[in-house]
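DM from R.C. (forwarded with permission)

"hey, sorry to bug you on a friday — could you get me a structure for this? deadline for the figure draft is monday and I only need the backbone to look sensible"
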Amino acid sequence: MSRVGELLWGFPVIGALRSTNTKDLREEDLRFCSVYFILEGDIFEARRIVALADDSVAFFLHLDLFGGIAPDEAGFLLLRELFPRVKGIISTRARTLTLARRMEFITIFRLFCIDSESLRTGLKVIQEVGPDAVEVLPGIVFPKISRFLPLEGFPPVICGGFIRTPKDVRDILKSGALAVSTSAKDLWKMNETLKEHR
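My reply, with the result:
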């Protein structure tokens, strides 16, 4: 099983944290998922969020949209020292992911599927970098485009973007995705009922 798969075992819904849904974030909000993506913010906001969660919860940072940590070797060493519960890095940049992987972080490449050319370019980067997982955006389209992806031998797929209903989550998981990431807090609770992914 992949390192991402181990973290998500039994918890296929990932909580996506943005400034729009973290202002009133409470400890009880962070008990539904085993992994949360911090998609924007800075080291001060991340410290507040991580402190609210149980020790068993893992976090991934979208480093392209994060302030206070540079995507270089010193930045990754600082990140490990300040936030030992940050297990992975999310990025669209090959260089960032390559270095993060060398520094033993789990890596997730964000693949924007807006047209066939963006898909082709993204697949090239995936081949070059070899991330631990790929986040397909917008995730809601995954059931329709999964047949265009070389899923055999492909890194595990996480889908994010425009996922609003329990049906969206189930359809995406049935289409072969390992997990979904969503900022909709009510969908985080689905981890309690998605027994087929345990």
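R.C.: lifesaver. The chain has a mean pLDDT of 95.
me: no worries. The CA atoms of residues 114 and 171 lie 20 Å apart.
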